[in-house]
Structure formats: C-alpha cells, structure tokens
Write a structure and sequence with these properties.
heterodimer, A: 328 residues, mainly alpha, two-stranded antiparallel sheet, 66% helix, globular, B: 180 residues, Four Helix Bundle (Hemerythrin (Met), subunit A), 2 domains, 9 helices
Chain lengths: 328, 180
C-alpha cells in the first residue's frame, strides 16, 4: 500500500502529460491552418464551429472512419507498427522536461517533471534521435518507391542535423555545469542563455527545424516530387498517428528552445505563474515554426546537406571554442 | 526486485539477439538488434549508470543502427533473404562451434583464477557521470587519447579505401557520418 502511495503522484503526472499531449494536436492543427490562411490573405477554416474551431474534430472523425488501407505487397507487421513506433519517442522525451519549480501540495514536495534525471539533456537528444525509426519502418514496409525515397531522405537529413544540434547545446551545458534540465534552467536565473550563446541558439534552432522536418527543410515529404514522402501509403487512423507525432515534435522543440536558451520559466512578469509563463514562451516558438512554414521556400537537397555539414557544424564547433575561451 | 528486472531484460535481450540471427529478412534482423541494444541500455540503468545507458541509445541505436538500416534499404533485400549466409553445409561450422564450446566449458570448470577475474568490482558512487569523466579525462587521459587517435586512423583508412578517382559527394557524406 505504501508503494502505491509512492507511485501515485507519478502515475497521475504521466496521465496528465499523456492526455494533454494527445489532445494538443487538435488546437495546433486549427492554429496552423488559421495562420496559413491569414498569411495568404484568406480566412482559413470558417465553417465548422466558431471561426472553424471544430474543424480538427471533424477531420479527426473523418480520419477515424476512413478505410485503413494496406498495400498488397507491404510488410504487414512492420507497416502496422510503424505509426506506433513513430509516436513513442515524442512522448518519451517529455519524461525529462521540467514544467516549473517544485510546488508544495498537501505538505509534500511535488516535482513538476516526470523525472529529474542527471543526464536529462543527453536523454532528450538520444530519444529524439531514435524518432527516425518510425519513418524508416513506414518507408520500407510500404513497398513503394515514393515512401522509400522519402524515408531515405529523412534518414540522411536527421543523421546530418543531429550532430550540429547536439554540438550546439554543449555551450549551454558548459554554462550551467550540468546536463540536468532543472540546473540548466536555474543557471539562467539572471540572464537567459541566448545572450551568451547567440550562435548556439541559431544553430540549435535551425537544426531543430530540420529535425522536425518543417519547411524550409521538409524534403522527406516534399509533396511536389514525392507524393507525400514516407507516409504516402498510409490512410485513416495510421496516417493521423504520423500527424500526431509530427505536431508533438514541434511542441517538444518549442519546449527545448525555451528551456535551453530562453530561461525556462524565469523572467515572468508579475502575477503570471511560472508554468503559464513557460507555456506562453513555448506557444510563441510553436507560432514561429508555423509562421516559417508559410514564409520560406523549400531548399534543394544538396543545399540542405551543404547547410548542415558546411555551415551549421563549423558554427557549432566555433561556438564551443568561443564559450571555452570566455569561461577559461 | 532488481533481480526480476534483470531476468526480464536479459531474457528479452537474448530473445531479440537470437532473432537477429534467425530472421531471414535483413531489416527484421536489424530491428531485433535495435531491441537488443535497448535492453542492454536498460541493463546499464539497472547497474546504476544512466550515462552509459543514454550513450548506448545515442550511439548504437540512434546512429549506428540507423546507418545500418540506411544501407540495407539500398540493397535488394528480397534476393538477400533467399541466399544462405553459410553456403556449403553446416557441418564445418558445427564442428568449430563444438570445439569452442568445449574450450569454454574446460575454462569454466578447470581454471581457478577465472572467477576472481570475473567478480565484479562494484563501487557505488554518487555522481556516476562526473566520476566517469574524471577518470576518462584525468586518470586515464593517455589511453583515451590513444584510442581516439586509433579511431582517427581507421577513419582516414576508410576514406582512402572508399575514395575512387572522382570524389563524389556521397563518399564525402559517408565519411563525415562515420566521423560522428
């Protein structure tokens, strides 16, 4: 019984985080379509609900009741598990993300994170790196050339941009002397990391865009030349699971940008709770990602590789060097 | 509790390890290997070294296996699935395995000093990551640097071997990926 009391807070926290993350794509889909509409000087979805607010719900129901089609020569087992595999890492990374300082509830300290691990940042980078497996499985199991090409592009892109991404956060780790996410946030109490690490932030932000496969780096699903990329053959609920994981990656990148470079929950204006302030900053980053999508054209594939290896990686190394010189 | 977890993880690791060899389809083998690596990472957590566990996932699962799959996807997998790994009979292989097994048994039963070597020197430290980095970069700096130089030599060797007359962009890319 005592064991149960010990794990009860964790179970509740897991349930809350999973529920919020599962529902979050609904408003995000609406937001993305609205932003797209207003940037292109049209109203966006307007019919279902007030200003189209219920449009994602209608779309969701449509996806649920559509036929679940599996290509005849597909590897059926891998084809079926691929969307689920794609969905796991975006949820798992939230294990290490803190949402605020510990709060006092019924006389006990309650951590506002699922796990306050020592190697938090490394864990997040590692788990976001294995997010590629769902894409690999989907592309290969579909037995379609567009899917395979899409997932080959995705693999090369993710591997290339993981390196500058990991290198760009080394400066942050040097400043806070820790890979623990709570320590990283508390090290920014006086001044946000983006002031010390402008190059690091730039590299991290751009490679984050590429990791999430958002425009201008969305070559794995370039609809002009690939149909739809790795999920060409998917329909119905399985397709919507891929959509879900893509939106979760965007949310997770927003969190990571804020926690690593924009002070986490520090610097809140008066009367605004810390967690709300953190979420507002994250929402700002999500908005920036969507704004970019309808502002920039897509890069060519050779340009994508050149940017990753010849611009971002040297910049990240330079950033480590400069941080080291200043700290020495 | 720890022991039950160990048994569970070890069983899954051995099962997925077997699948790596048994599975006909190279992609299925590679994915079983991924499962095996994840179990080993979990074993590291059980041993109280989360840093090694995360590095295991980062390097083996996130980088090496992804590159494996990348290469396998370029091959004609259907043809590969029908060719046998050992072409001419299993008898010689079986004999070699038998010899190795008897050697192992002999070593385990006869050697007196083996068990002392195998006994784990379990030291529980507060900050495993800090201790690991201190021993890597202070106590054993020279072996660490030598190992990295050896890796660099291997890397340059791979570049020299893979380099054809015209330096194509794909060669460059693979070597840079290996550099990770």
């Amino acid at each position: 019984m005592e064991n149960l009391y010990a794990i009860l807070p964790i179970l509740i926290k897991v349930a809350v985080v999973v529920a919020v993350l599962l529902l979050l794509p609904l408003p995000l889909v609406w937001l993305e379509r609205k932003i797209a509409g207003h940037i292109q000087q049209r109203p966006g979805p307007m019919r279902v609900g007030w200003h189209g607010l219920l449009q994602p719900v209608a779309d969701g129901i449509k996806l649920l009741i559509k036929e679940d089609h599996i290509p005849s020569d597909a590897d059926r087992f891998l084809f079926k598990i691929a969307p689920v595999v794609a969905l796991v890492p975006p949820f798992v990374v939230f294990v290490a993300i803190p949402f605020g300082e510990p709060v006092e509830v019924f006389g006990t300290q309650l951590m506002l994170s699922l796990s306050n691990m020592n190697v938090g940042l490394l864990f997040i980078l590692a788990i976001s790196g294995i997010g590629i497996f769902g894409i690999i499985l989907a592309g290969w199991a579909s037995n379609s050339k567009y899917s395979v090409l899409g997932s080959l592009r995705a693999i090369a892109q993710m591997i290339s941009y993981e390196i500058p991404m990991a290198f760009s956060v080394i400066g942050v780790v040097m400043l806070s002397n820790s890979m623990n996410m709570m320590d990283i946030v508390s090290a920014q109490k006086n001044l946000w990391n983006v002031v010390y690490q402008p190059i690091g932030f730039f590299v991290f932000f751009v490679s984050g865009l590429a990791e999430a496969q958002r425009i201008p780096f969305d070559l794995p699903e370039a609809e002009g030349d690939l149909g739809a990329g790795y999920h060409t053959e998917y329909s119905g609920i399985r397709f919507s699971l891929f959509m879900l994981s893509e939106y979760l990656v965007v949310v997770f990148l927003g969190f990571l940008n804020v926690i690593l470079f924009f002070g986490g929950w520090h610097g809140a204006p008066p009367f605004v709770p810390e967690t709300v302030w953190l979420l507002l900053k994250v929402a700002f980053f999500i908005w920036v990602f969507m704004w970019f999508r309808f502002t920039f054209p897509r890069y060519r594939y050779d340009q994508l590789m050149a940017i990753g290896w010849k611009v971002l990686l040297p910049l990240a190394l330079l950033n480590i060097l400069i941080s080291g010189l200043f700290m020495f | 509790m720890e022991q039950q977890f160990f048994i569970l993880l070890a069983l899954v690791a051995i099962g997925s390890g077997l699948l790596v060899v048994i599975a006909r389809n190279p992609i299925h083998s590679a994915l079983s290997l991924v499962a095996c690596f994840v179990q080993i990472a979990a074993l590291f957590v059980l041993l109280g070294s989360p840093f090694l566990a995360v590095i295991q996932i980062f390097v083996y699962v996130g980088a090496i296996m992804v590159l494996f799959l990348f290469v396998i996807m370029m091959l004609d997998v259907r043809k590969e699935a029908h060719t046998r790994f050992i072409q001419n009979g299993v008898m010689p292989t079986f004999l070699v395995l038998l010899a190795l097994a008897s050697e192992l048994l002999l070593l385990l039963s006869q050697s007196s000093r083996l068990h002392a070597v195998m006994a784990s020197q379990r030291v529980i430290v507060d900050e495993p990551t800090k201790h690991l980095s201190l021993s890597l970069f202070r106590d054993f700096l020279l072996p660490f640097e030598v190992a990295s130089v050896i890796l660099l030599v291997a890397l340059i060797g791979a570049v020299v071997l893979a380099r054809s007359e015209d330096r194509t962009e794909s060669t460059q890319k693979t070597t840079e990926e290996a550099a990770k």
